[in-house]
Amino acid sequence: MGEDYITFTQINDFLYSPASLYMHGSFADKASGSFKAKAQIAGTLEHEAIEEGRYSSHKDILQAKTIYSEKYKILGKIDIFNTKTGELIERKNRVSAIYRGLVYQVWAQYFALREMGYDVKKLYIYSKQDNKKYEIKKPTQKDEEEFADLLRKMRTMNPMELLQHSADANAKQSIYGELAW
Question: What pLDDT was estimated at residue 57?
């Protein structure tokens, strides 16, 4: 990946399966619907209201705002950030468990907002289907060091090594599994 910016969703994808992330990047220029699983299509539809600015018209609510961190060379869009309460909310269609990748994705948004001067007080992942809101703890100094280390690993990964490790169960189960293996 060199010194290119890493997107928030790539962090989650990488922790799920480095090989799956590579395959996703390889097919990124294809028709978007061709390589999406049902859950990804549902997630895309879930974000339409946010992307179109229909979630809220309140002036304190930032929605679908592109943010970045120069320090970490990461960027992406936040779902919802309430500038008045300091609450950052990552919305998902359905959350069955809070995986490390989701936490790191929210932390990435936190680091970017903080660097941009916003006061982020609370972090949440919201599951729309069951209307549950999961609070995510703010990262400690040790967490931030691990986060930086993960980004270093992502930037130095060797795609050919990833493809040689065809035993990566997550990649095989991903939407790219049949194409890659």
Answer: 56
Domains of the chain: 6-180 (3.90.320.10)
**Which backbone phi and psi does 6 adopt, to 5 degrees?**
-100, 135
Q: Higher model confidence: residue 17 or residue 141? A: 141
Pairing mode, if any, of strands 132-136 and 61-63? Answer: unpaired
> What's the predicted TM-score (pTM) here?
0.75
Say which residue the tokens 């390889």 belong to. 26
> 109, exposed or middle or buried, with CB in 10 Å at 0-12, 13-18, 19+?
buried
Residue among 122, 55, 111 at smallest CA distance from 87: 122
Pick left, alpha or beta for residue 2 (phi over 0 → left; psi -120 to 50 → alpha; otherwise beta): left
| pLDDT tens digits along 143-160 | 999 999 999 999 988 777
Q: Of how many residues is the chain composed?
A: 181
Residue type (1 letter), 35: F
For the segment 87-102, what is each residue's pLDDT rounded down to a tens digit?
999 999 999 999 999 9
Nearest to 63 by CA among 49, 74, 73, 75: 49
